[in-house]
Design brief:
Elements: H1 7-12, E1 15-21, H2 28-38, H3 54-61, H4 67-77, H5 84-100, E2 103-110, H6 112-117, H7 122-140, E3 143-151, H8 156-168, E4 179-183, H9 195-203, E5 207-212, H10 218-226, E6 231-234, H11 242-251, E7 254-257, H12 259-264, H13 276-282, E8 286-288, H14 293-296, H15 300-311, H16 315-327, H17 333-354
Parallel strand pairs: 1-2, 2-3, 3-4, 4-5, 5-6, 6-7, 7-8
Helix pairs in contact: 2-3, 5-7, 16-17
The protein binds adenine and zinc ion.
Zinc ion binds at residues 19, 21, 183, 211, 233, 291.
């Protein structure tokens, strides 16, 4: 728990999370547990000593050197997920944590291409994650949205295959899958790799978001917007291009910022280096998120607290962040109104105590 006097206020502040990878909620304990249950061979600790135990794996997670260094563990870890129940258990574990942190609405990413690549059918992955979402809605009162991420380290054909699978199952029409994203390694693959798929999706009215400007320079953000992205995941390097930043503010494009992730992956050396103040001053809407909480050692409330400790924001600024998180969510107007009222009530009850 953080020491800031605003901790209690931040805990109860109604939150929306828009940037969390369900596979990034796989803790070392669950990796070892599922590997044993499913008879999956983890990497040989003789070759990679990090895999000696759950605690050595966790220690290794504190020493990521880059996005790609993290991704190698992230893609290795998810190999233990085999059955629909495994995916459901993973999603449920995240929602329980998120609910305890004051999340009311969660939009969650998943990477079907990677699971298909290791022989798990698309339908099994979605069945499990949807079961976790439905349980969170029924038992915790959350609203949830599943966002299918294309991964940039695999060929366009494999992204097209999952897009076709989602279409064939009617998952966009039925709102089982609410939108598309793109993630994985940033600098290297063509910036506009998913242009044909995003173009086709846009014509069908499917929502689009894209990881950009995490390690890559602002031109990655520019390209993502040009391809139809309505939100930008991370986007921290936007502050390096004042003109583009003014456009993002003018168009109300929300950034889904992940402060602890950015420190853990060495995009910045401390949360205080993030352009939070710059974005507030420029009118750029953003939400605060956990990205891959099991790997980075912090869920959403830890991220809110880290920002508070670094920037000492006012209650009015927290109101703006919370309200923008609602406005940038892919939910119906009635749900937005309800969440905005909850924020208002929380601030009227606890805001003056926090000041
Ligand atoms: N931080 C991140 N950036 C890009 N792809 C990811 N996949 C999971 N976490 C990611
Ligand atoms: Zn991410």
């Amino acid at each position: 728990m953080c020491k800031d006097p605003l901790h209690h206020f931040l805990h109860g502040l109604p939150k929306c999370e828009h940037h969390v990878h369900l596979e990034g909620c796989l803790t070392p304990e669950l990796i070892f547990e599922l590997a044993a249950k499913n008879g999956v061979q983890l990497p040989d600790p003789g070759v990679n000593p990090a895999y000696a135990s759950a605690s050595t794996l966790l220690e290794r997670y504190r020493r990521f050197t880059s996005l790609d260094d993290f991704l190698s563990f992230y893609f290795e870890g998810m190999a233990v997920l085999l059955t629909a129940d495994d995916f459901a258990e993973l999603a449920w574990a995240y929602f329980v944590k998120a609910h305890a942190d004051g999340v009311h609405h969660a939009e969650v990413f998943f990477d079907p291409q990677v699971h298909i690549g290791r022989g798990i059918p698309y339908a099994t992955v979605v069945e499990g994650f949807v079961a976790g979402c439905r349980r969170a809605e029924t038992e915790l009162g959350l609203t949830t949205r599943l966002i299918l991420c294309f991964v940039r380290h695999l060929p366009l054909d494999s992204a097209a295959e999952v897009y076709e699978a989602a279409l064939a199952h009617g998952h966009f029409e039925d709102r089982v899958v609410h939108g598309l994203g793109s993630s994985s390694t940033e600098v290297g693959p063509p910036k506009d790799l998913f242009r044909p798929l995003f173009g086709a999706a846009k014509e069908r009215g499917i929502q689009i978001t894209a990881h950009a400007g995490e390690e890559g320079d602002p031109s990655y953000i520019h390209t993502a917007l040009e391809m139809g992205a309505q939100r930008i995941d991370h986007g921290i390097r936007l502050a390096e291009d004042v003109e583009l930043m003014a456009r993002v503010a003018r168009e109300g494009v929300m950034l889904t910022v992940c402060p602890i992730s950015n420190v853990q992956l060495r995009c910045v050396t401390a949360v205080s280096e993030l352009p939070i103040r710059t974005f507030l001053d420029a009118g750029v809407p953003f939400s605060l998120n956990s990205d891959d909480p099991a790997y980075f050692g912090g869920y959403i409330l830890d991220n809110y607290c880290a920002v508070q400790e670094a920037f000492n924001l006012s209650v009015a600024e927290w109101r703006l962040i919370a309200e923008n998180s609602v406005r940038g969510s892919w939910i119906e107007e009635a749900r937005k109104t309800e969440l905005l009222q909850r924020i208002d009530e929380h601030i009227r009850q606890h805001g003056t105590l926090a000041n």
